[in-house]
Amino acid sequence: ERDRAMGFCFYNSIAAAAAHALSLGMDRVVVMDYDVHHGNGTQWIFYEDPRVLYVSTHQYPFYPGTGAAEDVGRGKGAGYTLNVPLEAGSTDGDYAEVFKALVIPVIDQFKPELVLVSAGFDAHERDPLARMRLSTGGYAGLTRSLCDVADTHCHGRIVAATEGGYDLTALKACLESTISVLDGAPPAEAKEPALPATQRSRIAIAVVRSAHAKYWKL
């Protein structure tokens, strides 16, 4: 796949940023990818590198067809790829449960020196290309969780790079809320109650815990 541009992407800016951070002497970089599509390029670039923890929450099955929970890394990088495949229709509550049970505990154990975010907003409920049910407020909550991790482990060093998002109204709202949270504001109060967690997150959590049982305390 190295010689192919996939998923509307020609240049992997987040992977380049992670590689640059490593070249500057950092030893523990997190890439959190909440784009609705699995980031197969980023995964393969760092698949054998224990210095980069790649975490992806994505609709599954879905394009590009990669991102199974059992894909955990290889060699010295085993355990440093955390794929969280979520069924279509996953809600704010599902994402919150996945972050609470899997994403944040693993990042806390990794103790990153830098948090990079592949900020794809195509898991939004308005997005025309996918079938997830994240709201603008749900995205803001994920960003707040990642900011808290960055504050705890790496003096607030967090960088978000925009990626997917194909409904302009949703994209605008998510960008505004994400920038606001990165700037220190609390997530805005939601206009409507968040949709609760469903069986989708419970299934994903069980599968990922099994795949990573020997790598992390979950």
3D shape: globular
Computed structural class: alpha/beta
- Rg: 16 Å
Describe the strand arrangement of the main beta sheet, using strand numbers.
3-2-1-4-5
Mean pLDDT: 96
Percent helix range:
25-40%
Give a structural overview.
With 218 residues, this protein is α/β, with parallel strands linked by helices. The protein has a domain at 1-139: Histone deacetylase domain (Arginase, Chain A, 3-Layer(aba) Sandwich). It is built from six helices and five strands; from the N terminus they run H-E-H-E-E-H-E-H-E-H-H. The protein has helices spanning 13-23, 40-45, 92-110, 136-153, 168-182, 199-211; strands spanning 29-33, 52-59, 81-86, 114-119, 158-162. The longest helix has 19 residues, at 92-110. The termini are far apart.
Quick take:
The protein has 218 residues and is an alpha/beta fold. It is 38% helix and 14% strand.
Q: What structural keywords apply?
A:
5 strands; globular; alpha/beta; 14% strand; Arginase, Chain A
Question: What is the topology?
Answer:
Elements lengths: L12 H11 L5 E5 L6 H6 L6 E8 L21 E6 L5 H19 L3 E6 L16 H18 L4 E5 L5 H15 L16 H13 L7
Parallel strand pairs: 1-2, 1-4, 2-3, 4-5
Helix pairs in contact: 3-4, 3-6, 4-5
